[in-house]
């Protein structure tokens, strides 16, 4: 009698990670199993996430900024961080996004470009989950083209005064600190876009939650409004000028998505495999039919390839050789394949596939957002196209 294998066993994926990486993945998986999975469908249905409670759980196991060094951060490898993202998104994309925005956007910006004072003030508390961050780059009229941003920062004596708005900001209405990117006055000696560390209790800063979402419902999304927000000169991130700053942060977050999408797809496929094995159709297990096995085989091949690509990119990042266009390869392929797997798994579950009793439609809905945030598929295609041809086709 034959025995079933998981995709990891089929591809020998577990042989490609070391004991420390496996221990980190197991820790995150166990937290997901015990503390997150039992509630995530309810959070998705209600559109409410108990942010502080979840932050405390995630901070306790050290996943916030885990790939950063010092200031209370674990200093793990990039691959270990990727595997943690995989396990988080296997529960829900919103949870991986929560960790990604906290660690790869907000904390990374402060760690990479902040002053020592800014790092000491924020990073230890953020690593513990006691302080939450958000990342203000996208604007209502400027998503794929951040160079068009209208949010401004003007000098007034020794201070900066910020005005503008940011849209689709994860954690925006629950954050204690916002890393906000704004266009500065060229004629006053500053150069283009600069980042600012903005405590969210600063007068003139407000955030309103975006509701009625049908995707990423177990995640807080907000619009930020800055009306004459006055900040001291020390609020500016001193370590970077121009769009290089926010774009490097986005590459950090995209790297996590490369792994995270694999987690969502894996959870869908595991669900479909279990369901097909239990479901009887015409007095026979659904998993015993050729058409079902063809679907399962095709999905397993794409999932395994996506996982291999993620691990390959993780090793390159750890070696310091990962390039932006390679992150685009991973984000484009793995999210595209993950959403295709989620949709195909839904067909195996039939009508049961559209209920929150199973995670498949929830993953599919979430992946609709993952497909277009942190760079749309089209933008990543153009990044790859530029790498192949040497020609910039963005305009």
TrEMBL record:
<dbReference type="Pfam" id="PF02771">
    <property type="entry name" value="Acyl-CoA_dh_N"/>
</dbReference>
<dbReference type="InterPro" id="IPR036250">
    <property type="entry name" value="AcylCo_DH-like_C"/>
</dbReference>
<keyword id="KW-0560">Oxidoreductase</keyword>
<dbReference type="GO" id="GO:0050660">
    <property type="term" value="F:flavin adenine dinucleotide binding"/>
</dbReference>
<keyword id="KW-0285">Flavoprotein</keyword>
<dbReference type="InterPro" id="IPR052033">
    <property type="entry name" value="Glutaryl-CoA_DH_mitochondrial"/>
</dbReference>
<feature type="domain" description="Acyl-CoA oxidase/dehydrogenase middle">
    <location>
        <begin position="134"/>
        <end position="229"/>
    </location>
</feature>
<feature type="domain" description="Acyl-CoA dehydrogenase/oxidase C-terminal">
    <location>
        <begin position="242"/>
        <end position="388"/>
    </location>
</feature>
<dbReference type="Pfam" id="PF00441">
    <property type="entry name" value="Acyl-CoA_dh_1"/>
</dbReference>
<keyword id="KW-0809">Transit peptide</keyword>
<dbReference type="InterPro" id="IPR009100">
    <property type="entry name" value="AcylCoA_DH/oxidase_NM_dom_sf"/>
</dbReference>
<feature type="domain" description="Acyl-CoA dehydrogenase/oxidase N-terminal">
    <location>
        <begin position="19"/>
        <end position="130"/>
    </location>
</feature>
<dbReference type="GO" id="GO:0046949">
    <property type="term" value="P:fatty-acyl-CoA biosynthetic process"/>
</dbReference>
<dbReference type="InterPro" id="IPR006091">
    <property type="entry name" value="Acyl-CoA_Oxase/DH_mid-dom"/>
</dbReference>
<keyword id="KW-0274">FAD</keyword>
<dbReference type="Pfam" id="PF02770">
    <property type="entry name" value="Acyl-CoA_dh_M"/>
</dbReference>
<dbReference type="GO" id="GO:0033539">
    <property type="term" value="P:fatty acid beta-oxidation using acyl-CoA dehydrogenase"/>
</dbReference>
<dbReference type="InterPro" id="IPR009075">
    <property type="entry name" value="AcylCo_DH/oxidase_C"/>
</dbReference>
<comment type="similarity">
    <text>Belongs to the acyl-CoA dehydrogenase family.</text>
</comment>
<dbReference type="InterPro" id="IPR013786">
    <property type="entry name" value="AcylCoA_DH/ox_N"/>
</dbReference>
<dbReference type="GO" id="GO:0000062">
    <property type="term" value="F:fatty-acyl-CoA binding"/>
</dbReference>
<protein>
    <submittedName>
        <fullName>Glutaryl-CoA dehydrogenase</fullName>
    </submittedName>
</protein>
<dbReference type="InterPro" id="IPR037069">
    <property type="entry name" value="AcylCoA_DH/ox_N_sf"/>
</dbReference>
<dbReference type="InterPro" id="IPR046373">
    <property type="entry name" value="Acyl-CoA_Oxase/DH_mid-dom_sf"/>
</dbReference>
<dbReference type="GO" id="GO:0004361">
    <property type="term" value="F:glutaryl-CoA dehydrogenase activity"/>
</dbReference>
